[in-house]
Design brief:
This protein is about 65% helix and about 5% strand. The protein has 18 helices and five strands. The radius of gyration is 24 Å and the shape is globular.
Length: about 425
């Protein structure tokens, strides 16, 4: 089973790197398609050379699915242009009006969208599109939407810079159609895996003495993540330690950094802040050496969070400042919002009230811009509490109205309405 997972991952990578086929169709159930969706997300975090535009949202109606694509892309485009502006580079122009024109066929709107990004995103990166909706119930609408990407007559020149990872229904519809039309310009892979099979396969691979050691250790790392998710922190830490020792022996520095970062997460979640900080620092030493932005961002954020718990405010501010900057370089607004929230706490603890409020204002605006309502609520709670504690009731009232406009969180319990209760929440 692990070999099947590894084969799928290798197939995705090879598809992205090859120049001959623009489109790959993945057939399978919603559960099976979760795995390649996560793989593309992982590629996005690791691959600084290419762009990944992934859309796993439900497709119960193709027009609504495309509208969500547009909303996501416009938010990402705004973040990218902010980064390009900081680099004194030419911004990417706004999306052309035709992509929003609901009178036009979805296929034409999608083709125009693809051409726009292909023409204007900074070269020479490939652009990988993951149109992998789950669930997919509007099969006919989705098929009509992706028509231009199927190269039904020929591979068009505008497709050259792109790789399209699409999905089929279960049972398949698009794959058999391509086969009947003898379309040899599109690749088709059946994904017959689900989460239970994946977990079983990882256990089997990690314990199989006949399997290559690289496979066994990688399976061990992934099982460590499962343990961590279920709060089995000692078991997770042990697995990461075994894997780290193997990668140290074989000189695999990227995986050494991953293991150290994950082990730091496990210790931090168990409340062992000092030990976690040590591991984050070790992972950062390697990440800086190999210039791995994802592990650098995770390491700086983890180290800053530990320093907050250890009340080392100046150190926390330094780490979280870099975590915020690195999240921006990775175009990850969610990680950036989290770093900005904690950076404000580090500044507040040092009496830098104005600097604290400044970063929180920017953080909650960024969260609202990207639809990260939970992040915006959390930052607003802290701002409200700080204003109440400072007797700035008019400003606190305005912030309360702003928070109420976001609506209640689905995970929210009734908070204390007293200034004392609010002030207590700031310190956490």
């Amino acid at each position: 089973m692990f070999r099947a997972i590894e084969t799928l991952q290798r197939s995705l990578r090879e598809f992205i790197e090859q120049p001959d086929y623009p489109t790959l169709i993945l057939g399978g159930t919603d559960a099976a398609l979760m795995l390649p969706t996560r793989m593309l997300s992982s590629f996005d975090a690791q691959d600084d050379a290419n762009y990944y535009l992934c859309f796993p949202q439900p497709c119960t109606e193709a027009g609504a699915y495309f509208a969500e694509m547009l909303a996501t892309l416009e938010q990402q485009l705004e973040a990218l242009n902010a980064e390009l502006s900081a680099q004194k580079a030419e911004p990417v122009p706004p999306l052309p009006p035709v992509v929003h024109d609901t009178r036009q066929p979805l296929a034409r709107r999608l083709e125009t969208l693809v051409c726009h990004f292909g023409e204007h995103l900074p070269e020479p990166s490939l652009i990988v599109w993951g149109l992998l909706p789950s669930p997919l119930t509007d099969v006919a609408g989705y098929r009509a939407l992706v028509e231009p990407l199927l190269a039904t007559t020929a591979v068009q020149p505008w497709m050259e810079r792109h790789r399209f990872v699409l999905r089929d229904a279960a049972p398949p519809v698009i794959g058999p159609e391509l086969q009947r039309a003898k379309n040899d310009r599109v690749l088709v892979i059946d994904v017959a895996l689900d989460n239970r099979q994946v977990l079983s396969g990882l256990v089997q691979a990690a314990s199989d003495p006949s399997a290559p050691k690289d496979e066994r250790v990688l399976a061990l790392v992934q099982l460590g993540a499962v343990d961590q998710a279920f709060r089995r922190y000692p078991e997770a830490f042990e697995k990461y330690g075994v894997a780290f020792n193997y990668y140290a022996e074989t000189g695999n520095k990227p995986m050494q950094a991953v293991c150290l970062t994950n082990a730091g997460h496990a210790l931090a979640q168990a409340g062992q802040w000092e030990r976690a900080l040590t591991l984050y620092r070790q992972s950062l030493a390697i990440s800086v050496e190999i210039q791995s932005l994802p592990t650098m961002q995770a390491g700086t954020y983890g180290a800053g969070s530990c320093c907050l718990e250890l009340r080392r405010w100046a150190e926390a501010e330094g780490y979280l400042h870099y975590a915020n900057e690195l999240a921006g370089k990775l175009y990850d607004p969610y990680a950036k919002c989290e770093a900005m929230e904690k950076l404000g706490l580090a500044r507040l603890a040092q009496g830098k009230v104005d600097a604290c409020m400044d970063i929180w204002v920017k953080g909650k605006e960024l969260a609202k811009q990207f639809g990260h309502d939970q992040g915006a609520r959390s930052i607003l709670d802290r701002m409200i509490a700080l204003c109440r504690a400072a007797r700035l009731d008019a400003r606190a009232d305005a912030l309360e109205r702003e928070r109420q406009a976001l609506g209640p969180s689905p995970f929210e319990v009734a908070p204390s309405s007293t200034p004392a209760g609010a002030a207590a929440r700031v310190a956490r």
